[in-house]
Amino acid sequence: MAEQTASGYIQHHLQNLTFGQLPNGDWGFAHTAQEAKEMGFWAFHVDTLGWSVFLGLIFILLFRSAAKRATSGQPGGLQNFVEVLIEFVDGSVKDTFHGRNALIAPLALTIFVWIFLMNLMDLVPVDFLPMLAATITGNDHLFFRVVPTTDPNATLGMALSVFALIVFYSIKVKGIGGFLGELTLHPFGSKNIVVQILLIPVNFLLEFVTLIAKPISLALRLFGNMYAGELIFILIAVMFGSGMFLLSTLGVALNWAWAVFHILIITLQAFIFMMLTIVYLSMAHEDNH
């Protein structure tokens, strides 16, 4: 097999394992990036879905284990860690969310831990799990990405779920009239009914853009930061695999340095997504009428 070029190596690592309808009408896995592109909207990124579910289960089992072993006596390390994390999230919710909703704190905890675990996969050496998957399947050309948050489908999926909650609680708290009033009577208002009616299209355009920007900003911020981090790891891996001792040594040093710095990015992005979700849901619970 011919040696893979640096460009081919990078493109291979940035391509998801995609399942969908092939050009011949059958359903199966894409063997090239072009095939994956031609599958269109109803293609599934199996690696993203698989790792998202797997890491979600780890979160559930970890916290379930901590809850079952919880004691009022001398707590273990896991219980201490979980309690500190819960207190941190609960404090963030109390400081930011001004309504009354028992869902917000568990939702914030789930978002923070789940996104953190998905981001954390970026610290696994870029070739380790893809090569392991290729060895198991016997397919050296297998596409396999292990960081779900570097896939815009995953980040948009989470952001749209938050957006659905924003709309739901906006209507529940303010009523359908209050929700539509926010979209059509703000930010420009007037005591003159005729002027107010004439301003409705302008108000709606401005408020709709503001509303739809919330999930888009949530998704793109997380995706952009994690995608850039993954790309840097891949570029370092290209340097490391060059075979030159000096460059390889530099590659190892750069990899460790970036990994240490990236831990901050991983945590910060999970925290930002959680905090913005709390803020947006707090705004949805505000009834100004």
UniProtKB/TrEMBL annotation:
BP terms from Gene Ontology: proton motive force-driven plasma membrane ATP synthesis
Localisation per UniProt entry: Cell membrane; Membrane
Alphabetical keyword list: ATP synthesis, Cell membrane, CF(0), Hydrogen ion transport, Ion transport, Membrane, Transmembrane, Transmembrane helix, Transport
Spans through the membrane: 42-63, 102-121, 154-171, 192-212, 232-254, 261-283
CDD domains in the record: ATP-synt_Fo_a_6
InterPro entries in the record: ATP_syn_F0_a_bact/chloroplast, ATP_synth_F0_asu, ATP_synth_F0_asu_AS, F0_ATP_A_sf
GO cellular component assignments: plasma membrane; proton-transporting ATP synthase complex
Membrane topology term: Multi-pass membrane protein
Similarity comment text for this entry: Belongs to the ATPase A chain family.
Function as written in the Swiss-Prot or TrEMBL entry: Key component of the proton channel; it plays a direct role in the translocation of protons across the membrane.
Listed name of the protein: ATP synthase subunit a
Annotated organism of origin: Aquipseudomonas guryensis
